[in-house]
């Protein structure tokens, strides 16, 4: 009996290890890390490529894939997603991060929603990618409700056996929310003055859905978004568009959602064959370390330290520890961890990146423009850029390695602009470039850059800085107009 019990225990342990095999898939637009079987991971990448194609067709995006591939990290369950977030919202099941190191999403492999009224894992993935698509290819000013409404509209995409894809379907989870959650008047939602939580998703989806299938509402929505982009407040944009309708928007949409069946859109991908998908088996160290490039540094600090100790011969483990230390401004610890990674691989792109950032961070803390660490750090950043031209982080770091504007060469601003082209959704790059344009008197360009951050419903240092820059840009434009009128 004891021998049988021991055998069963060993069998259980062995099957657990066999299942937990890390793989990496790379396609034209995506890099995916997951503990999935090769066939399932390959099919996931192909479905994502088809979903991307649907978005491109609907948005009119032509041309080849962009240089920055979207990274996706699968974790076991929604709780693992929240473990990578500080102050994670209750019920958060996935997140999108417009990171300087490259845009990334973390999503669960499985969710309880696959069996009920919650969100399914693929819905979460499509939702996060829709965010990325909007902000990467159309980096304009959007109110929060529309950012969520756009993603909600596409997240329910269904793949039919004939190869067509149905978009615009109703998510049971959001339908229940419309019925049971307290209704927020659209006048308030579209004013975009505060965070309306779940209603931004449900009512944002409802208005977006209505505008897609109703020509008049679609034209009104475009006028509203154009007014927002031009600098009007949400309240002003609403009053000039939806607020002028004969029938109140709330009544129109409440009647719309009570229809027996809402319309959908079936899209056939003609003459489209996804490119090849390369699947690589990863070591345990590679798999366990990769996910630490996403999420809040504070939330992943303990895991980064544990991984560096557990996998001492894996450079990326020390790189993630260095980034964790860098986030807490412990530049000495960051440099030490980076040195360990460089000792293992002197040409490691991110090891050179984080070493350079640690050095210029320490130089900045010294408040000495002549500190030799500025130049030393710049050398590592140049090395990282030479190895990966389409990585925004070394480009941004290179710009930041010149403490005095008068000492920076012309290619420093060019590097910053290139970083923005690669990750236009990153707020730090956006604010920094706006600041440079203000100094150069490029007020209109600066105001366009900061408007998306001004429209954020979340109070933050970034939003406050963006508001100050917008005020300065508007004053600069007014001054330029006055000077031109006096000539």
Describe the structure.
There is one protein chain. A six-stranded mixed sheet has the order 4-5-3-2-1-9. The protein has a three-stranded antiparallel sheet with strand order 6-7-8. Among the domains are: 296-400 and 407-420, Serine Threonine Protein Phosphatase 5, Tetratricopeptide repeat, CATH 1.25.40; 426-487, no CATH class. It has helices at residues 2-19, 38-59, 78-83, 121-137, 144-155, 172-180, 186-189, 198-213, 215-229, 234-240, 249-257, 284-290, 297-310, 315-327, 331-344, 349-366, 372-387, 392-400, 410-422, 427-439, 443-454, 461-486; strands spanning 23-26, 30-34, 70-75, 95-97, 104-108, 158-159, 165-167, 265-267, 278-281. The chain is of the alpha+beta class. It starts with a helix and ends with a helix. Helix 20 (427-439) packs antiparallel against helix 21 and helix 20 packs parallel to helix 22 (461-486).
The CATH topology of the domain at 296-400 and 407-420 comes to: Serine Threonine Protein Phosphatase 5, Tetratricopeptide repeat
Mean pLDDT: 89
- Which spans of ≥5 residues are poorly predicted at pLDDT below 50? 1-19
Measured by DSSP, the beta-strand proportion falls in 5-15%
List keywords for this structure.
single chain, 487 residues, alpha+beta, Serine Threonine Protein Phosphatase 5, Tetratricopeptide repeat, six-stranded mixed β-sheet, three-stranded antiparallel β-sheet, 22 helices, 9 strands, 60% helix, disordered N terminus
List the helices and strands and how they pair.
Blueprint: H1 2-19, E1 23-26, E2 30-34, H2 38-59, E3 70-75, H3 78-83, E4 95-97, E5 104-108, H4 121-137, H5 144-155, E6 158-159, E7 165-167, H6 172-180, H7 186-189, H8 198-213, H9 215-229, H10 234-240, H11 249-257, E8 265-267, E9 278-281, H12 284-290, H13 297-310, H14 315-327, H15 331-344, H16 349-366, H17 372-387, H18 392-400, H19 410-422, H20 427-439, H21 443-454, H22 461-486
Parallel strand pairs: 2-3, 3-5
Antiparallel strand pairs: 1-2, 1-9, 4-5, 6-7, 7-8
Helix pairs in contact: 2-4, 4-5, 5-8, 6-8, 8-9, 9-10, 13-14, 14-15, 14-16, 15-16, 16-17, 16-18, 17-18, 18-19, 19-20, 20-21, 20-22, 21-22
């Amino acid at each position: 009996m004891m021998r049988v019990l021991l055998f069963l225990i060993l069998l259980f342990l062995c099957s657990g290890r066999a299942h937990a095999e890390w793989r990496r898939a790379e396609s034209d637009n995506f890099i995916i890390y997951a503990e999935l079987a090769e066939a399932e991971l390959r099919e996931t990448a192909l479905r994502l490529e088809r979903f991307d194609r649907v978005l491109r067709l609907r948005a009119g995006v032509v041309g080849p894939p962009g240089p920055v591939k979207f990274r996706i990290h699968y974790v076991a369950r929604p709780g693992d997603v929240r473990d990578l977030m500080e102050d994670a919202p209750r019920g958060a099941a996935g997140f999108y991060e417009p990171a300087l190191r490259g845009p990334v999403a973390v999503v669960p492999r499985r969710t309880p929603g696959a069996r009920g009224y919650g969100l399914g894992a693929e819905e979460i993935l499509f939702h996060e990618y829709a965010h990325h698509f909007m902000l990467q290819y159309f980096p304009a000013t959007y109110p929060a409700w529309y950012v969520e409404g756009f993603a909600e509209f596409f997240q329910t995409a269904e793949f039919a056996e004939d190869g067509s894809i149905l978009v615009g379907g109703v998510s049971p989870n959001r339908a229940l929310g419309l019925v049971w959650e307290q209704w927020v008047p659209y006048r308030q939602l579209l004013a975009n003055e505060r965070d309306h939580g779940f209603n931004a998703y449900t009512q944002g989806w409802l208005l977006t859905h209505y505008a897609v299938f109703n020509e008049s509402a679609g034209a009104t929505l475009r006028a509203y978004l154009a007014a927002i982009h031009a600098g009007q407040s949400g309240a002003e944009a609403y009053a000039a568009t939806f607020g002028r309708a004969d029938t109140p928007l709330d009544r129109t949409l409440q009647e719309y959602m009570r229809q027996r069946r809402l319309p959908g859109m079936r899209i056939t991908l003609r003459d489209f064959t996804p490119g090849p998908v390369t699947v690589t088996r990863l070591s345990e160290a590679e798999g366990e370390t990769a996910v630490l490039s996403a999420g809040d540094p504070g939330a992943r600090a303990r895991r980064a330290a544990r991984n560096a100790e557990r996998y001492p011969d894996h450079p990326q483990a020390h790189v993630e520890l260095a980034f964790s230390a860098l986030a807490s401004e412990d530049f000495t610890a960051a440099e030490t961890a980076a040195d360990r990674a460089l000792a293992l691989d002197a040409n490691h792109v991110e090891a050179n990146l984080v070493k350079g950032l640690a050095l210029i961070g320490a130089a900045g803390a010294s408040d000495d423009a002549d500190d030799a660490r500025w130049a030393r750090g710049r050398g590592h950043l140049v090395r990282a850029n030479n190895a990966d031209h389409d990585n925004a982080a070394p480009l941004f770091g290179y710009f930041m390695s010149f403490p005095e504007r008068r000492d920076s060469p012309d290619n420093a601003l060019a590097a910053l602009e290139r970083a923005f082209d690669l990750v236009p959704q990153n707020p730090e790059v956006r604010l920094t470039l706006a600041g440079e344009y203000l100094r150069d008197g490029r007020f209109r360009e600066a105001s366009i850059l900061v408007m998306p951050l001004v429209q954020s419903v979340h109070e933050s240092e970034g939003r406050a800085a963006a508001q100050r820059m917008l005020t300065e840009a508007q004053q600069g434009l007014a001054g330029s107009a006055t000077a031109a009128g006096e000539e």
